[in-house]
User: What shape does this take?
Amino acid sequence: MKKAAVLILTLILAVLQAGCAARQDDRINVISREAGSGTRDAFTELTGIKKDGTDNTVMTSEITSSTFVVIKSVSVDKNAIGYASLGTLSDNVKALSIDGIKPTAENIKNRTYPLIRTFNIIDTGALSRQAEDFVQYIMSSQGAEIIEGQGYVPFAQGQEYHIKEDMEGRIVIAGSTSVAPLIDVIADEYKKIYPDVEIEIQQTGSGAGITSTIEGACDLGISSRELKEEERLKGARETTVALDGIVVIVNLQNTTDGLSTEEVRQIFTGKRKAWKS
Amino acid sequence: MKNYSERIMKFIFAMSAAASTVAVAIICIFLVYKGVPAIREIGLGDFLLGSTWKPTEGEFGIFPMIVGSIYVTAGAMVLGVPVGVLCAVFMARFCPRGLYKIFKPAVELLAGIPSIVYGFFGLMVIVPLMQNVIGGSGKSVLTASVLLAIMILPTVISVAESALRAVPESYYEGSLALGATHERSVFFTVIPAAKSGILAGVILGIGRAIGETMAVVMVAGNQAAVPTSLMSGVRTMTANIVLEMGYAGEGLHRNALIATAVVLFVFILIINLSFSMLKREG
Amino acid sequence: MKYKRQSRSRKPFSLLVRLIVTGSAAVTAIILVSMIGYILYHGIPNLTMKGLFDWRYTSQNVSMMPAIINTAIMTFLSLTLAVPIGVFAAIYLVEYAKRGNKFVKVIRTAAETLAAIPSIVYGLFGYILFVITLKWGYTLLSGAITLAVMILPLIMRTTEEALMSVPDSYREGSFGLGAGKLRTVFRIIIPPAMPGIAGGIILAIGRIVGESAALIFTAGTNPAVPDSLFASTRTLSVHMYALLTEGLYEEQAYATAVVLLVLVIGINSLSKHVAGRFTNVKRGG
Assistant: This one.
């Protein structure tokens, strides 16, 4: 009994000590996404964190596979920095300007914001009738309207979509958790036109979506990054649907309003460790 | 005719009994078949003791994850076992009947809550709490240990309680007759007599803690680096699998995750073995 | 227990013991109350959100109704697969196998190992075997088989216990009257063991309802009621996981947590009820 008490007491002391040490600093707390996340791939490419195929994200960065955890963590931790898709941003975190340019739909449309990536649909060329038609719908002017309504920038304005006769069957879509909410909305509209079409969306991450498409486990893949060379070689091809900004986010209490791409790179590769430099 | 159906049914029963063995065999074969070549390709030393996990660049060292799993499990034990065992003592020997009727279902409820709900609660409540009290990001070995300690409580409590109840009443009465107080009798005769049962509960708790996934992944930070203090983030073996499982295409990365599962499985086997040895003794 | 009052003493040791024992119980109680309180407090106001219980899921209403139905379907299917095998296996172990049989030892060890495997390993196994190797894709069937294997040891163990608690005099009586083994098992032994078996099944339901790690990569995350065994489904726990992935649906996640809690409380009290009947039967026998 005594032993246990001593043990617990030491533990509490150790915790308090560590707590006091940690309280004083303003060490930057980096939050990143898991290997295989399209958002991470695009972010590291665009900022130069990934160089010559090597992802130099600092090993001490927190990793999560969920945007919810990124946003929630940043909203409660005044030293945290993370990144997320513009479409999933909420107002309990602060979006930073990059190189002096604010991440707005406007700045993405005129391509001045530096961290722009594409939302893509992946297929292998052999499409079912309904899947091909669904892609057509996404790329049409009606599709563009929905994309714009969701806060993303449509890649092409597209032509008007004409309703076809007896469209039915199942479309299985798998991939990026960033693209899924957008495709979900478009699918809802599409199903209003064709009640006999079933659309299944699997949120598994960009990499998994591309792999499943190549392996034939789904009809269409969705990806928030561009295809890699080896994926193209395996027969995958992409159709760009929309533009999205990756937003660097910090806590609302953070006094920083903007960073340069260089600073972002330094922070995420661990070269810069404190907010006050 | 009747003899026939007897025989057929006996055969069906035996086959059903064999099903679990077949299932274990299939899982083992599959893990070994996919995992062992990966370990061979990476090199056993580099795999188990390598401290860099960068699957996209072909570095597969799971040492940080092994250490991480051990740390959070140990932390959960340090925090959860004393509370759990003492709580079991309370329920078996100190609890008024009326309170017990509420307390017992409450502990059972704790056991039934899905781990995703635990993770959500951890992220929304325990992480900010840790941040306020201790500072840092709030996602750490300590946070994960606290959450896991809560999750193993019902396991430890219910096994320990039934072990305490299984101690013959004469032990307790004998101690009282020798002039010991109620408290002294419980602590120096009943608890020692229930030792192996309590230990069984602890081992079951270890098994649950080391295998937990969805809750830990939300509160641990998941840095693929060996934690340097109670305050640093940590990635467990289970978290490593769930984070990258969907992505890992055919090839070494996926097989390295299966190999991680092999290591986890070996841990589970060791825990199981010590459990059955304990049971044989008890 | 009647000695308790006399022995209550003011010695410091006794006081300390009382303090830490009651303290530990209080800690457990506080944790449970704060957790449930927190979820109910934040979740119940969100239960009234528009369309949360619509029959069809859309990106606007994020309805959890399909997930609730899917949970029922998934539970039914996994039980259909696991219960006969589990119960038959237990019958073999208790009624047919000779004590100390090697085969029995192997089965017991296998069942114990199965019970200890973490659910993420089941998920990984199901994903690679059913989804990738057999090319079924994310399907209801992949998920159900994975879960069935997972709950098999639980059903086996509880059924075994239930069968063993039936007194041998039942068996002897039945044989004495000239009944065969099969008849004895199904007519004489299973009926009094039924509540125990049912208790095990309810425990298994609890595990299925709470499972997420083993399902995400086997049954997938599609939020619609499946129209075949080869369609993807999302149970309520997976629904909650999916809501938390993109961070757009925090309120709905709270509401889902409330529904999950209610389900768990329901399952627990059902098992309590059944277990109560079981002990009555045992005493009666």
Notes: The interface with chain A takes residues 58-60, 131-132, 135, 137-138, 217, 220-222, 224, 227, 231-232, 242, 244-248, 250 of chain C (CB under 8 Å).
